[in-house]
Design goal:
By secondary structure, this protein is mostly helical. The chain has helices at residues 2-5, 46-70. The longest helix has 25 residues, at 46-70.
Length: 71
C-alpha cells in the first residue's frame, strides 16, 4: 500500500511486489526427514492445515450434544 500512497518516496521502485498469501495445502503436510538429501523443508502452510483440522474437531465436538438431543 505504501508505494501507492507515497508514490514520491518510491519513484525508483518500478516493479510492484506481490504479497504472498497463505493457502491450505491440498493434502496433509508431512514433516520431512532431516537426514534426507537434498534437504527438504517443512511446508510453510502447515499451520493452516492444523488450524482447519482443529476447527473441524471442535465443531464436531460441539455438534455431538445437539445430535444426541435430536435423537
Amino acid at each position: 500500500m505504501e508505494p501507492k500512497i507515497l508514490s514520491d518516496l518510491y519513484k525508483s521502485l518500478k516493479s510492484e511486489t506481490n504479497i504472498k498469501a497463505p493457502m491450505k495445502p491440498r493434502e496433509k503436510p508431512m514433516d520431512p526427514d532431516p537426514e534426507e538429501r537434498p534437504r527438504k523443508y517443512p511446508d510453510e502452510n502447515k499451520w493452516i492445515w492444523n488450524l482447519i483440522e482443529n476447527l473441524k474437531d471442535k465443531l464436531n465436538l460441539g455438534l455431538a450434544p445437539l445430535q444426541e438431543y435430536m435423537n
